[in-house]
Amino acid sequence: MTAPWRAPLTSALIALGTLLSGCGGLLPQPPEAPRTYLLAPTLPDRAASVPSAVPLAALSKRPSLRVGAPRAEPGYDSRRMAYLEQDYRLDSFAEHEWVAAPATLLAPLLAQALRDSGAFAAVSEEDRGIDADLRLDTVIESFYQDFRPRPSQARVQVRAWLVNPAERRILATQVFSETQPTKTEDPYGGVIAINQALGRLLPRIADFAAANAGQVAIKPVSPP
């Protein structure tokens, strides 16, 4: 014979189990790792205008250039992907970020655009005690997806300085801006648009550096 108190207890346990199984989706879940994205813009092919083999005498007439470590204004100095929905309010996506801070990713891209221009005898990315005729300094002033217009837009703005390091003198400075409408209203749409904007902006910076490079006296190449 079953004890009279066991039937209500069994029913209560069954009901509790059903409740817990139904509320499983409400329990705290471990956070997912953020999705990470690359800056890998497609740069225009300038190989046809730049000879594959340049004589040493010709190279000696071109300045060398070092790309200074790019900097970024507050709000764009981390891996977090920034966006704007309201005037003056800069937010960041919680589950989407760059593989590194945009300023870190920008240095090799700038160097590649400068090499592709064919205007410089050599382009280096780091200061390893090697003298260069010129230095290019940059700061990211805007780097976000703007949801105020529709479709949303990627907005990139970079200020560049061409410097004569021997004389500690700024030869030229210019602000470069690009916008690109997105095809989808999500973070990935912004990633694609920012890469497209950079694909146009970086060659413009390279052309700026090349156009002002003639202001520096080129150091003679020492014989081997």
Describe the structure.
This protein is α/β, with parallel strands linked by helices. It has helices spanning 6-22, 56-59, 102-117, 187-212, and strands spanning 35-37, 64-67, 71-72, 80-86, 89-98, 122-124, 134-146, 153-164, 169-181. Strands 1, 2, 3, 4, 5, 6, 7, 8 and 9 form a nine-stranded mixed sheet that branches. Strand 4 and strand 5 (89-98) form a beta hairpin. The protein is elongated.
SSE diagram, text form:
Elements lengths: L5 H17 L12 E3 L18 H4 L4 E4 L3 E2 L7 E7 L2 E10 L3 H16 L4 E3 L9 E13 L6 E12 L4 E13 L5 H26 L12
Parallel strand pairs: 1-5, 2-6, 2-7, 3-7, 4-7
Antiparallel strand pairs: 4-5, 7-8, 8-9
Per DSSP E runs of 2 or more residues, the count of β-strands stands at 9
Cα-to-Cα separation, first versus last residue: 106 Å
Unreliable parts: 51-58
Mean of residue pLDDT?
A: 85
Radius of gyration: 27 Å
Describe the structure in brief:
Helix content is 28%, strand content 30%.
Provide key terms for this protein:
224 residues; alpha/beta; Rossmann fold; 9-stranded mixed sheet; 4 helices
